[in-house]
Structures are given as structure tokens and as C-alpha cells.
Amino acid sequence: MSEIALHLDSVSKDFGRIIALRGINLDVQPGEFVSILGRNGAGKTTLLNIISGISTPSEGEVLLFGTDPAASSNKSKLAVISHEMFLYSNLTAVENLEYYTQMYRVEGMEDKISSVLETVELTHRRFDLVSTFSRGMMQRLTIARALLHDPQFLLLDEPFTGLDQHAIAMLTTILKGQKAQGRTILLTTHDLHIANDLSDRFVVIDKHRVVYDAAVGALGVDELRSRFFSAEGAQS
Amino acid sequence: MLKPSLAIVQKDLRMEFRSKESILAMWIFSLLIFVIFNFTFEVSRLVMLEIAPGLLWVAFIFSGMFGLNHSFAVERENGNLRSMALMPVTGGSIYLGKFLSVTIIMLLFETLIFPIFVIFYDLQLTATLFLLIPVILAGTIGFTSLGTILSAVSVHTRNQQILLSLLLWPLVSPIIIWSVNLTSMVLAGEILTNFLPLLIRIIAFDVIFFTISFMLFDYILED
Fold first, then answer.
1. Is B219 on the interface with A (CB under 8 A)?
2. Do the beta carbons of residue A95 and residue A168 sit within 8 Å?
3. B14 CB near a chain A CB, below 8 Å?
4. What average pLDDT does range B132-156 have in this prediction?
5. Between 3.30.70.60, 3.40.50.300, 1.10.10.10, 3.90.320.10, what CATH number should domain A1-76+184-236 receive?
């Protein structure tokens, strides 16, 4: 049996008196695409911070590929894409990617950079400063940056926020390609249709707890919305 | 460990030489200090020589504060400090990279402003003036080794500049005071017997500050 990609056992997190997560149990298999859904403030980003190792849980255990997420060996297997770009606007696209290849010790820097820039259709802007890029182009460069070191696990924190239709379509295609290559993907989003199109499984977090965890198709998008995201659903 | 640190230095220097934002601002600020003090107070050359070492270090340190703030402000932009925490490198490597880039920028600025200081205060170019090189190096390294980690601590806060000043000044004061004392000796051409012990004391502080900061930087990057 292959090693489980992610294991969360009774994970809780609080910031003083503010509760962010309560007793989260979650297992993700290698190659699985899981979408985490929830309202603003449900704790999705906190959960992703814990999984990526930059935040530690107040209680519970987190194992990424069987070890501590903060272990250096895990960090090279992981890539995070969020609404924060992780880019330097006063550097060109190539200079940003060069920096990341050095930090992640990527072999064959030039070929790798050319390849990821081609994937996100930014080759023609490679020598332009990032400060001259549109939001969509910056997000595409962020995707290129995340794919540079061939991560086994992709953590996507609302990556579709603020993107135009072309950029959404491109990101969707790239994510389908990554899934086809066997990458494990965890996505947080508000967009049920995109999540439905991409994922194998839905996990809904409400009031800091997992309230739903099932394969895509177990409930339709409309039923999911009415149960967990409508005003009435929130009351129940 | 050195490769990621050098990548950070390369990235920081590339951005600095492209914008020249830090060095230009630091240089203009220091120039203003020299001009104001030189033309406002009509004092004898003897008195001026007494206050000049203090002025030089005021210029270095206040400008250095700007450099430190700027160095981590660019990391806050677009969540880059968070991205550093996600990288498969140790906090020590990141600290070393940021420390080296801040120190290089500050030493470069000091090299550019020192000739102006010599001209304004009519200093004699004697052989003893070369003794300022180890003094400035040791004082600057002490300031940047501590300033780098405290700047990383304060960058998450809303009042970054105030917090950095509050944290940095009490700790770095001994180094600044000793550096001013040593600079006074060199400018006066009177190298006293306590010159070397004082310089060694600054270097010892540098080593302590650097080592502690290097070891603690992983905790700074945590959420």
C-alpha cells in the first residue's frame, strides 16, 4: 500500500481565545484532488498553513508523507499557490524564477524556466518587470513558480480569486494536467462549480469543524450549496 | 547552506541596484545631517572634531535603520516572507542572506558618504585614518546582525519602524558608543592603549549577536 499523502488527526488551532479549527480529521491519498469548501473565516487558510508547516496546531497530529510538514524534505515536495503572489515586482519574470530555482535547488535551471514559462504562456514577457504585469499574468507566473521544483503536493488557497476568464481556464487546464500526472492537490475555494469540475472529493468546513466529507457526486452542487452555503443552511 | 543565502543576496542587490532606493535615500539623509550641522553651528575646529565622530555614527545608524526597514518591507510585499518560510532552507540560511545583503548595502553607502564627511569636516588624510576601516566594519556588522533579526520580527506589525527602533536601540547602544569612542581616537590621531580591547569587545558582541540571531531565525519565520 502506498504511503498516505496527508494525515490529520484531531487537529485544533486557536489564537488565544479565538478558535480557528476544532478536531479536524482528514486523510488524503496520493494523487487525490480534494477541495475544501467553507465560508470566509471557517478556518480553511489556517488549515492550509498548518499543512504547509508554517503554523503549528494547538492540538492534534499532522503528517505529510508520513513526517512533520515542517521537515525540509517535505518542503521540497510541496508548493503553495494563494492569492498572495510570492513574487518580487522589481524583478523580471525570469529573475523571479531564477531565485526560486536556486532556493529549491532545481537542476537544469534554464530549461526548467523556459518550460514553465511556456506552460503559462509568458515566454514573450520573460524579461519584463513583474510590476508591469496584470493580476492574471502575475497569477500565471505564480503558477510557473510553484511548478518549478516538480512538487508532489499542491496546496491551493483560493487561487482563482481576482482572475479573468482566460486565466481561470488556463489554471483549470494546468490543474487537470497536474492531477493527470499524479500530483496530490488540496484546493480551497468558494467556487463550487470549479471544485466540482476538478475534484475527486469535497470537504466542507463550517464553524471550524469538518461537517461534510464525501466523493464528488455524492451530493449535487445545488444541494451542497443549499445545505452548507445558503442563509438557511448556515442557521441549521 | 551558503547557496540559498547567496541567492538572497543576489536577489536583494539586483533589486537595490535597479531602484537605488535605499542607497540614494540613505546618502541624501546623511548628506543633510552633515550640511545642517556644518553650517548651523559656528564652532571651532577643535569642537567640531569632538562632535564629528558622533555625527558620523548618527548618519550611519539613522540611514541604516532606513535600509533595514526597506530590506524587510520588500519581503512583506506579495507575501514573500511567508514564501521564505515555505522553502526547503533553514532559517539560518535566510538570516545569513538577509544579513549579508543589508551589510553590503550599508557598507557601500558608508563608502560613498565618508568622502563627503572628510570634506565637510576638513579631516586630514593621514595613515591613522585607515584604522577607521575595522571600526566601521565591526560597528556596522554589530548593527546589521541585530537589526536584521529585529527587522524580521517587527515587519509583521503595523508600527514596524517604531517597534524596530524600540527593540534595536537599547541592545545596539553599547556597540554604537564604543564605535564613536574609537572613531574619536582615530580622528584625533590619538590611538590610546584601549583602542584594541574596545575593538575586540565590539567584535565579541558582533559574534554573539550574529550567532544568537542565526540560531533563532527559524522561530521568527513561524506564524
1. no
2. no
3. yes
4. 94
5. 3.40.50.300
